């Protein structure tokens, strides 16, 4: 596991520094991994959870593709 660090920028206040740190922690998935490993989960439950997460990820990607296709379609008509 790698350590997450944030260096203070010039004229940066503490609130924005904390905000950047929280964003890095959330994007790294450390907290999600900790929550998943904090209790025992049967292998069948793990598979179900992974399938559910994969389905959600696919839906998000599909909606992004659809939005980008609609934007290209509308911009070409102008």
In words, what does this structure look like?
The chain is mainly α. Helices cover 74% and strands 0% of the residues. The protein has helices spanning 14-28, 30-37, 43-77. The longest helix has 35 residues, at 43-77. The termini are far apart.
Summarize the structure.
The protein has helices at 14-28, 30-37, 43-77. The chain has 78 residues and is mostly helical.
General form: flat
**Amino-to-carboxy terminus distance:** 50 Å
Indicate the low-confidence ranges by residue numbers: none
How would you classify the helix and strand content by structural class?
mainly alpha
Largest sheet, strands/sense/barrel: none
* Fraction in helix: over 70%
What are the secondary-structure elements, in order, as H or E?
A: HHH
Keywords, separated by commas or semicolons:
78 residues; 0% strand
Can you lay out the helices and strands and say which pair or pack?
Blueprint: H1 14-28, H2 30-37, H3 43-77
């Amino acid at each position: 596991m790698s350590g997450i660090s944030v260096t203070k920028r010039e004229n940066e206040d503490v609130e924005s520094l904390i905000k950047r740190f929280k964003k890095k922690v959330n994007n790294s998935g450390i907290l999600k991994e900790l929550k998943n490993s904090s209790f025992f989960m049967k292998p069948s439950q793990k598979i179900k959870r992974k399938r559910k997460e994969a389905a959600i990820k696919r839906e998000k990607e599909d909606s992004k593709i659809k939005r980008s296709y609609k934007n290209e379609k509308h911009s070409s008509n102008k």
